[in-house]
User: Fold these one by one.
Assistant:
Number 1:
Amino acid sequence: MDKDNAGAKAIIDYGIAVYFKNPESYTGEDVVELQGHGGPAVLSLLLKSVLSVGARQSRPGEFTERAFLNDKLDLAQAEAVSDLIESDSEAAAKAAVRSLGGALSDAVSDLLEQLIALRIYIEAALDFAEEEIDFLSSDELKHRTQTLMDAFDQSIAASQQGRLLKEGLSLVIAGKPNAGKSSLLNRLSGKDSAIVTDIPGTTRDVLREHIELDGLPLHIIDTAGLRDSDDPVEREGVRRARHEINQADRVLLVVDANDPEPPELPADIPADVPVDIIYNKIDQTGDAVSIDYTATGTATIKLSIKQDTGIDLLIGHLTDSVGFQSDTEGVFLARQRHVDALIEARAATKQAIAQVSNGDMPELAAEDLRRAQRALNEITGEFSNDDLLGRIFAGFCIGK
Ligand SMILES: Nc1nc2c(ncn2[C@@H]2O[C@H](COP(=O)(O)OP(=O)(O)OP(=O)(O)O)[C@@H](O)[C@H]2O)c(=O)[nH]1
Ligand SMILES: [Mg+2]
């Protein structure tokens, strides 16, 4: 009771108190939930009154953290709670609910089961190394490792789709000044967001637009044209452009088709980031609209933004190349850390299999498999450090 109202027993609201007895509550503890009519003033009175009798406000994500610590949810499911609340498309919400229901955790525990079985098999085979039957080159082992690698590939593909649904793909438009980068941003976003002029060096700031292509969230990022400049503002723009290029999931390098010089890849593009080359302004060169693919799946596309020709080829290429299926049935929402852990576990498993099959150091295989196991356990929080937990729950909103 608020001390101003002490003794007066003023009525704040007419509502319901729901008592959840442990362990059947969200957190697994005894919980009382007070439900009122809502509205900030009434709720603030109610909150004040509750705090005055000794309660304190929860930290961000504290309820879910308690649920995790009390084994009501594993870490991947706890993260799905926050991702569900934050999801900004129906597909992302559906995928988050699947993760909350345990789809990602189930995939991980299936991988763990196979991994442990494989480890036991290899360790047993090593113990019987002197016997006549060579377990390590048996068909049984080949079959097991193949099934496990296939399961890894499937989980990685599904979680990468999930990560794309959650975080979107960051597509950075880069290139020399005046090539048509801002025109491309405007065309793809369907908005007049960026200033377009024929003056090279028009864009200095980084501009972002969020769009959806066939259900795939895309962050399109327009950057300053790359060139050396004495102008400090432009130099800062170029520095920011390079920073964005360095963080990109994919880069569209826009080139003026009239430029006689061959396109130059900006040095800041990380080696594993795909780059598509867009020859723009073919209305001036007389080239035909075309798309050619390289062996690695990137494209060279000739188009004209001004005349709106060839843009459909670019859009089709983008949706195809990120391997995003607009049918997201069965996809579970995932975070980058989940994808990274799965990739690490797959790499360690692959190494273990190589150790066994080339017969070099089969004893090391067991250690590699243990490393894979640790990576998988990090996803569900079986082994996780306080830092990671702190970071994850700090990203939640208060009251969840
Ligand atoms: N002829 C022709 N002109 C185009 C085409 N696309 C863009 N332009 C023109 O090219 C000029 C530069 O376009 P922007 O989109 O501002 O180029 P940018 O790459 O963003 O340039 P900076 O911001 O200076 O780096 C503008 O005058 C556009 O109208 C095209 O397909 N054909
Ligand atoms: Mg521009």
Note: The pocket of magnesium ion (ligand 2) is lined by residues 181-182, 194, 202-203 (CB under 6 Å).
Number 2:
Amino acid sequence: MNTEPKSEEFTTVPAVFAVEDSYQIMVPVKCGMLFWVEVGKEKYFDHSNGVIRSDTLIHRVSVPTKVLDAAGKYTVCFKKVIKREPYYTETEETKTKTYNFYPVRTDGVINIYHIADTHGDFSFSSKAGKYFGGDIDLLILNGDIIDHSSDVKNFEIIFKLCEAITGGEHPCIFSRGNHDLRGSCAEKMVDYYPNSNGKSYYTFRLGRIWGIVLDCGEDKSDSNAEYGGTVCFSGFRKEETEFLKKVAKDGEYLDKDIEYKLIIVHIPFTYTLDSPFNIEKELFKSWADILKDKIKPDAIIAGHLHRTCVSKIGGELDSKGQPCPVIVGSCALRDQNNAVTDFIGCALTIDGGKTDVMFTDSERNVLSRETL
Ligand SMILES: [Fe+2]
């Protein structure tokens, strides 16, 4: 774990998110700066069609997964902008900071920690997320980490959790939850979170692991009064269905080196909740069918229900025909005043054909365990 303090110009250390065949290295910053990452001799700039960005407080560069995995370290570089001018822009000297990077192990046990539904709690969820300490391979942040998106400041907790648990040295995966979609800044999430050309659903590849991040959108119909006419997830989900069909057809999941296929989604869509949450039954069944018939994942990991459980095929959450076990892995415990008193997340260890699912609290206690 990187114990050096982060650069004073950064709000947190970088977070390294897996998206498709790249890592999106993202850093929230405190001032305008030109920003790039160096891996070996190659420079990867945060740019807009060739113009290096500085009028932003969140930077992102994409580095090919294979390049960073092989290098095992990356250097973030920046120059504070004194005055950005049409001619002869003034900047300070370049500053750099180097971070080690540990990709998902190529052999042996893989350790994954999953957090969702913290709804703004950092204290307990960050402690729970340290279950594996520096031995973590992958951190999954699976939606509703914030309570709502009324202020871009709310987005910082994502990066704070990545910092506390990975130190910028291990890969992370981010998926949106329904609470992320509420508030005047929800439309700006694409600037602040990892995504694939603006889409919040995408595939990823991390060594022996391949997977898909899916996004169910809101949990009630678009016409629900709560949303005040601000959402159109019906069409969004139809587009996502076409994406899923294309993934199934293209067959990247058939690569011989893939040993474990994981679906990450905030809402466990194979389960039908009571009204008004019983939306999209046919569409979600079609997702389950595509996964079952073609992609054949090893596990779906979800949150949203504010509980922890493992539903095997035909189990308690199987309303639509599960393609695989569904793990619901997050639960904040609260007192009678609704204050968070602890957080339970999900530690997954993958060892060959065996997956251990452990629900653990902020004191690293294993509260229950199941082997798949
Ligand atoms: Fe949720």
Note: The longest helix spans residues 233-250.
